[in-house]
Amino acid sequence: MRVLLGSGGIGTEERRSKFRDLISDHFRDSENVVFIPLATHDHEKRTVRLKESLGPIGTKFHGLNLDRGFDQILAADGVYVGGGNSFLLNRDLHKYGFIDALRDVVKRGAPYLGVSAGSNVACPTMMTTNDMPIVMPQSYEALGIVPFQINPHYYPGKITFFSEGDSNDHFGESRQQRISEYHQHESIPVLGLWEGSYVEWDGNRGRLIGRASAFFYDSEPLEFKDGAIFDGNLVLE
Ligand code: ASP
After folding, report:
1. Which residue range is the domain that position 88 belongs to?
2. Predicted structure pTM score
3. Tell me, what CATH number does 52's domain have?
4. Which of 7, 30, 86, 116 is catalytic?
5. Which among 8, 198, 201, 236 counts the fewest CB atoms within 10 Å?
6. At what angle do helices 86-95 and 99-107 cross, to 10 degrees?
């Protein structure tokens, strides 16, 4: 399997250029990549924006057409699931019956790229998203093409914000607190993926590009550094 999952947060030119390099390498042997914009409301606009942002390699990406989406997915030699709202995305993946088809093509070896919401739905469930439940999916179950959970856009500690020139403490919950609430009910480990970071997964082993924090239901969190190699239980090699 060839899976690449990103957090997003590519707000600088350096990060955007790294993202473009990763995408062109990831889909180097693909000619017909299906782009799934279901996490956003305006599918067409999102697809046009994606193709424009990719430059010359944008021609191999084809936006999902809901009327023939099933055949399009099965014929694809690559899949890119973009970000947006994870509830909307997971609802529509179930509603249009795309879950099994996507799992099949990825298990057959088609490279999968997920960014943000697209990373959430690559996990066993979408339960570690940061998103608001703006629609009701029929299930939280997701693609399960990686065996661990991801919390994208992860940051450590609490928020400090600026207002009228002063820095202020927000006093809200930290991400770590939210993930520990998840672990009061579930035992699957969670990778808190920092902005601008990626996970490569080959079906057995993961490799981190960037930074991440790993959370477990029965042990202390671990910091993963760039290049860390780990198994499906987030145990470091
Ligand atoms: N809304 C995020 C995205 O950009 C997903 C998340 O934060 O869980 O797709």
Report:
1. 3-153+188-230
2. 0.96
3. 3.40.50.880
4. 116
5. 236
6. 90
